[in-house]
Amino acid sequence: MTGVPVTDDEGEGEEMVLQEEDLPSHQTLEEEEEANKEDDVVSATTLEGSIAIASEKKEEGNAHFANQRFLQAKESYQQGVAALTAVGIIHSDDMNDTTTVEQLDKNNMTKALCVSLQSNLAQVCLKLQHYKQAEQHCSAVIEDWDESVAKVWYRRALAREKLGNLDAAVDDLTKSIRLLQAQKQDEQMKKTALQAFERVRKQMSTISSQKNKDNTSNDNDTPTSSPLLNGLVNGHHHHEPPPPQETTATAPAVAIVPPEPFTIRPSPEEQKQAVTKLLKSRTVALQQNLQVGEALFLIDWDWWSQWCRHVDLFSSSDSNTNFETTSKRMLALLPAGAILPVTNNETKAKKDTTKQQEKASDDDDDDDDTSMESSDSEEDGDQDGPPDPIDNSRLLMPTLRKQPSNSTTTIKFYQQWYRHFQPPPALEDDLGGDTPPQTALRPNLVRGYHYEILPREVYCALKSWYRELTPPICRRTTKKKSQSILTIDLYPTPATTTITASKHKCAACRARTATKRCTRCLMVWYCDRSCQEAHWIFHKVLCSKIAKNNNNNGTNINNHIPPTAEGRVGLNNMGNTCFMNSALQSLSHATPLTRHFLSNQFQKDLNPQNPLGTGGKLANAYGTVVKELWWASASTGGGVATSPTALKRAIALFAPRFAGCLQHDSQEFLAYLLDGLHEDLNRIRKAPYVEMPDFDNIRNNAHTRVAASQAWECHQRRNDSLVMDTFYGQFKSTCVCPSCNRVSVSFDAFNHVSLEIPTPLNQSTTWLSLWVFPDRGSSNNKNNSNNNVSPKGAAAVRYAFAFRRNNLVADLRQALSEVTGIPPTHLVICEVSDHTIVEILHDNKSLGTIRQDEIVTAYQVDPYTSTSIHIIVSHSLVEAATDQDGSPTSIPLRDNFGFPFLTSCSALMTCRQLWEHTWLRVRHMVMPLTEEGDEEDLDMELEDAYRQLLKIRVTDADGNLDPIFPLNAPDRDAKSDDDEEEEARTAYMPQDLDEKISSFLGEDCTSRFLFLSLEWTETMDTPPECLKQAGSAQGGNTNNKKKKKSKKNNKPKAVPKTISVNEKRFVTYTDHPCYAECVKKKREMDGIRGVSLDQCFETFTKPERLDENNMWYCSNCKEHVRALKTMELWRLPNVLVVHLKRFEFRHGFRRDKLATFVDFPLEGLDMSKHCAQWKTDGDPPGQLYVNDHIPAVYDLFAVVNHFGRMGFGHYTAYARKWDEEELSMDWALFDDSSVRPIGDGQGGGVEQVVSPAAYVLFYRRRNFN
């Protein structure tokens, strides 16, 4: 049965490290042969029956193998092979013309199944330590049937290794690795084979050194290097040119450094001690002086994390030291800003989760290789095992070297648009020199996710132990005059660029890299064959004419190539299609995308099987339109206008709303067009399931950058196209729950930014002014220097804020707390009308519902508790008088005046304490003032005179008097119970009663609010005893007078004979500086012609309270809440599409247009101040700052304009040409079929581009890298 030819149909991902400890020690060869005696004779009368039996036995063997029942698995596999052997398999040499297609299909199915069973038999024999049988099974497959099964070569190498045939094992491993590289199979399998290769070579080196230990020369200690090491990455010898092959998008073509000869590295503990010693030595040296110009090296983050786990770098051998302390100590030794890699425990937990998910998915997988995975111990060992040679290829930018003609569109995109920053062609390992080479890196690299920074000494040590496959990446520290810290420029701008632009432009894609000329007419130039084939349909008529002239005249001197339109072709209006025409004209001037279609490179990316696309119809139709716009000339009858009929039908397939002849929104059409092109050109043929990671544990800016990179790569696993490379950026969205303050961060991709225009015309902003009343009698308030209490006796401080209309009162309270220093829980915001508090504003009330003429106040109070009472106080004015019997009385003058106020007190206060509590909060409005406006420091007797101006009354919520106090309060204890029942009562609160206020309130004492009316007497005579006391204080007590002068450098005013209430002091307030700033900003916005684009971006990034129709679900509160949401730009695209939201819905169906002028720059738009990625949390950590930002300066190249109103308007477009070298000054106006230039071609006369009609703006990044 071992001679049956087989082909392994197993899947990828098998862990191919043999673990002998998994084998049962009691099993011997004799026992295994006895167990293998067949009890049943497998019989099959038909081929179909044999296949069914073999498949059943294969699944049975897989189940036994998964449960480590290896003997039973071997028996099942042998029975399956026997069933197939009985019917026979036709060899390829035996096939003739009489062999039918049905026979061939069944034969191939039988062959594949037999190979799978035979390969599994070899794996079982390895587990049972029957290495000779395993070798025989593998040799039968290789020699008789198929030599292209990498897994069979690998299993035979393992068997030969155990049998001692190391030379043959090396050859088998070399063949296996090359097959894996050629077939582009799983990288994990290749890594396992490489580890086995190193292990075998190490054994050979040990044996060789033992044999030659007595020799005087050690030249032959190391065996001859295998060809495999010289072509470890590319799959060929290093002295041979690489074969032409297509470079994948995820593995760009980078210069590969030939590996060094294999050396035996120290143990993990020795490596850890050596690196720690090097880091400590560097730290001691840096303490003396910060080294400007120190060479630091970048290393791949995955490699660095695996090495840290392998040597357990961040743990301590001391059991008394916890992990957190040790890790912080080690991070302090690394260059500042280092991030802790994933620890071994976290890795194992993550592996267990992944393993359970894979096991669940494997239940429905018929591929037998899923049942042949190695044991848990094998997998854990691989995760913590030594890493492969250092490979920084995913950090490097593709080089400028000539690529094969079938290179992918991703590499071509990088070659054309990122070549300003390419490294020189010659790359050397200059680790030992003073000036290591500057290697160009991919954009948007993040420390702690893509790379880590290591000192030169540590990198050299790691390189000597593990070798490197890519050139070193060195960056030197610099220090600018304006900075006190060291900086590393991750993307340094070279002094000179390495561009080698051709003097000819490609006739197809218009790139400046044309090096090939048409061999027929010798008049036009192309980049490559693809450009020529794409352009031939437009060039063949002219080419034939020129070639004919050349044959007749023998020269092409008199021949002339007429200029092409180069985008200056109109589009016919096919019935309300101006919205489509304007968007197409603008998009066709996006050079990267247009060049992709003009060169026919897009055909390599077509994905007709994508269910989210149009099967390639939209991409093909768009390509046709672009070619007509850019290649049309007078000789072909074009150059005037064309009709995009096919494109309109194709977009209707993707978005049916655009079918027919109705008017639509140009921005909506553009968004659907970009999405449709992306899906048609998506390079991901089979989109995997991707689960977004949880970003709730983001603690600082470094974690945010890592989370954003994780989200972007998760998005790229399902979306990869040139449209995404050009137009897509990334939003950062932050939601804060108003109840539990939970913060949720998410990242989303976008292809355009919709900006709200911040102008009062659309009522998007509400300007709110309010008066804040600090608690003057609170001890906490006296110690708080941030509450802006006026020292001049003012009743309040006025503030002003600008909010979006959908913000809530909770947002106002938070903003007020930040300005005043009063905690939000101690602020109560109220609405005042007619000098009375009429409503307490709750947190969920929208600020947009507050009218501009309403008076809003805020009071500092203690939070409400079961033993506290909030007191709402109003003021009234009376005139002193006497009744008929001479008793004093009062005549009401004014029911309410001045600012009301709100305070809080304990329900356990007595009437005397409550009266004093209230007086302390109003005395500043009646006490005399010094010349400087401060309150006079009077004696108690003098202050009592002013107390007599005040009487406190208790009222109900409607303002009606509430008589709850007895008329003769001080004699209350002397009265009997019967007299108390008939006792007359009054609403005036006794000033000197020591009975608790709760005893008078009764059931009302449990109410949250107590309403008081302060009755002020307008004018009264000063009591004689006060005048007498004042005179003695001013004339008789000299020491007192001197004491007061030392305290106040102002002479106190004399006590007047009459005292009165000044109503103006009850409405006195001071303005906080923020009020003047807010008023100034409002006036500027009302007075200017319009707003700037920067103001639009500032409005976009402001926090916004979600409305009831867009509530967010909080996982902590388990309910939908109106969260505070903040949208920010995180990753900026290369082509930025900005949509100005000029239309807004009103009353459900009405949609109004905003004609506000938005001033946007034609060149030099700096987006760094609007990008959250450029913002850091405070100062850079430590003494090192990594500048990894890509220049964010943008230039305008197209504008879509809208005139009229929605549904009945008209669209036009302005556009100009640009490429990687320059930005043209020639603007053109596209109005359907009409195209005309504007300006003088030198940048003048283009003021009309910036107009109130601008609707969609197209900006290109000045430098892509």
From TrEMBL:
Residues 163-190 form a coiled coil. Its EC number is 3.4.19.12. This is ubiquitinyl hydrolase 1. InterPro entries: DUSP-like_sf, Papain-like_cys_pep_sf, Pept_C19_DUSP, Peptidase_C19_UCH, TPR-like_helical_dom_sf, TPR_rpt, Ub_carboxyl-term_hydrolase, USP. Residues 217-227 have a biased composition (Low complexity). Residues 506-543 form the MYND-type domain. Belongs to the peptidase C19 family. Residues 569-1262 form the USP domain. PANTHER family: UBIQUITIN CARBOXYL-TERMINAL HYDROLASE (PTHR21646:SF24). It holds the Pfam family UCH. The keyword Membrane does not apply. Residues 7-22, 361-385 have a biased composition (Acidic residues). Residues 266-478 form the DUSP domain. It is an enzyme of class 3 (hydrolase). One of its GO terms (biological process) is protein deubiquitination. Residues 347-360 have a biased composition (Basic and acidic residues). It comes from the Eukaryota. Keywords: Coiled coil, Hydrolase, Metal-binding, Protease, Thiol protease, Ubl conjugation pathway, Zinc, Zinc-finger. SMART domains: DUSP, TPR. It catalyses: Thiol-dependent hydrolysis of ester, thioester, amide, peptide and isopeptide bonds formed by the C-terminal Gly of ubiquitin (a 76-residue protein attached to proteins as an intracellular targeting signal). The keyword Hydrolase applies. Residues 1-41, 202-249, 344-407, 963-988, 1023-1057 are annotated as: Disordered. Residues 1040-1051 have a biased composition (Basic residues).
